[in-house]
Every structure is written in structure tokens, then in C-alpha cells.
Write a structure and sequence with these properties.
By secondary structure, the chain is of the alpha+beta class. The protein has helices at residues 7-15, 20-36, 56-64, 100-104, 114-122, 125-128, and strands at residues 46-50, 73-75, 82-87, 93-98, 129-134, 147-149, 156-158, 163-165, 168-170.
């Protein structure tokens, strides 16, 4: 029997490689759980809101247990290295913003290498991030919707995402409302 992997090792295994973004997400998630006095979610007791769709999100999922599939990982496409963590049990929430200096402290040639990753992991918390208490309401648990059939492609679609096109139910792509490239 081998030793149990550390949380960092689990993040690296899930993500597939070591990089500064993964280190940022790891640190932010660890700090978020510490601030909430919470543990990794087994179900939907925690909520994570991520403001980017990059490497840090993989670490947030591994550390917090929040996932898109459970509906407790929410994505806001703001392009920021900011992560909000909320506890449904306590009603407390915090937003962790990774300071620009934490991402740019090394020369450009070293920013993607192991030295940058280690710097992010070792940086004092006050230099790494800003922590804000959140007063907004915690999102409700995920809802399960019925499926309907798109009249144009024949594929099943959640009724919450179905649109009307020419008086018929349509999925978002068939309704012509999908603007982001595949």
C-alpha cells in the first residue's frame, strides 16, 4: 500500500501538469476553506464561484469538492483570478482575489517554471491575495429539469435551456443563440 497523496499531488494528478495557475487555484481554495472553517464538500454544502475558465479552476474543484455536475461550481466569465467560496451551512462567504504581484513577481522567463509555482505556494497570504467577506445570498442548490426534444435536431435539451424558434422548441444552437466558437 502506498502513501495517500497530498492535496497538491491530487490537484496535479487531476490537472495533468504543474503550472502557476494550478498553484493559484490551490492556494485560493485552501485559503477559502480556512476562512470558512470548512472541509471539502461531499455534496452541495459548499459553493464555489470562479471568475475564469483556466487552470486554477481544476484545483478549486479538487480542493473544495465543488463541481459543475453538482451545480455548486458556478462560472462567471469575468477573466479575473478571483474565487468566491460560500458555506450553505453557516451562510458565510469569502472572495479571494489573487493579487497581480503574486502572478508577476518573477521575470517573464521564469513565470511558467517550477520556481514560479513554488513562489506562489510559499508566498505569504497577505502578498498572495485579498480576502473580502461576502454579503450576497448563497445560490440555491441545483435544480433538476425535465428534458424536451429539439424540433430541429432531435436531441434532448433541458427545458430550462430550450428556446422558441418559429413556434417550436429548439436547443440553443438550433435557435441560433450560440455565439461562442466550439
Amino acid at each position: 500500500m502506498g502513501e495517500e497523496k497530498s492535496d497538491w499531488e491530487k490537484c496535479v494528478e487531476f490537472h495533468g501538469h504543474v503550472c502557476p495557475g494550478l498553484a493559484m487555484g490551490y492556494r485560493a481554495a485552501k485559503i477559502g476553506l480556512q476562512e470558512l472553517a470548512a472541509r471539502r464538500a461531499l455534496d452541495e454544502e459548499l459553493v464555489a464561484i470562479v471568475e475564469n475558465d483556466a487552470c486554477p479552476v481544476d484545483a478549486v474543484m479538487v480542493i473544495t469538492g465543488c463541481t459543475l455536475g453538482k451545480g455548486n461550481l458556478l462560472f462567471r466569465d469575468f477573466g479575473k483570478h478571483a474565487f468566491t467560496f460560500m458555506s450553505r451551512k453557516s451562510g458565510v462567504g469569502v472572495r479571494i482575489y489573487v493579487k497581480a504581484g503574486a502572478r508577476k513577481a518573477q521575470p517573464a522567463s521564469l513565470r511558467s517554471g517550477p520556481s514560479m509555482v513554488q513562489q506562489i505556494l510559499d508566498l505569504p497570504q497577505e502578498e498572495f491575495c485579498t480576502i473580502q467577506n461576502i454579503e450576497e445570498s448563497i445560490p440555491k442548490p441545483a435544480r433538476i429539469f425535465n428534458s424536451v426534444t429539439c424540433a430541429f435536431c432531435g436531441e434532448a435539451v433541458s427545458e430550462a435551456r430550450a428556446r422558441l424558434k418559429d413556434g417550436k422548441l429548439a436547443c440553443i444552437p438550433c435557435a441560433g443563440q450560440y455565439t461562442r466558437g466550439l
